[in-house]
Design a protein that fits this description.
Layout lengths: L5 H4 L3 E9 L4 H17 L3 E6 L8 E8 L2 H11 L3 H13 L2 E9 L5
Antiparallel strand pairs: 1-3, 1-4, 2-3
Helix pairs in contact: 2-4
């Protein structure tokens, strides 16, 4: 979609992150996840939690968080690059190698 209608572009967005994690480092990934929940909220987002493997694939984890708009999310992404707490979370993931890869998708929620 080239240019979404303005009403959709300005609407709340929810980011879905699908992680491929090292199944031997789930505890380390959980530590990493717990670092990010307050950081997303510090930058104006609402974190809906991380979801770790229970049944089925043992190397897939998910995260969901929302921002008031895609613009607010982009501001968070830029500002997080300069934040010392965010830098510590990035460094922890790099040091432990608990995250092998990830992909982000964006959704607009529908409510009653």
């Amino acid at each position: 979609m080239a240019n979404p209608p303005l009403a959709i572009a300005a609407a709340m967005i929810t980011c879905h992150v699908r992680y491929v994690i090292d199944a031997n480092l789930i505890a380390e990934f959980e530590t990493y996840a717990k670092m990010w929940i307050p950081l997303v909220e510090k930058f104006g987002g609402k974190h809906h939690g991380y979801f770790l493997p229970a049944e089925g694939a043992n190397n897939i984890a998910l995260a969901l968080f929302s921002f008031p708009s895609l613009a607010a999310y982009e501001t968070y992404r830029q500002d997080s690059q300069q934040d010392t707490d965010c830098q510590a979370a990035f460094a922890y993931a790099a040091k432990t190698r608990c995250v092998l890869s990830y992909e982000r998708s964006f959704f607009r929620p529908v409510f009653d």
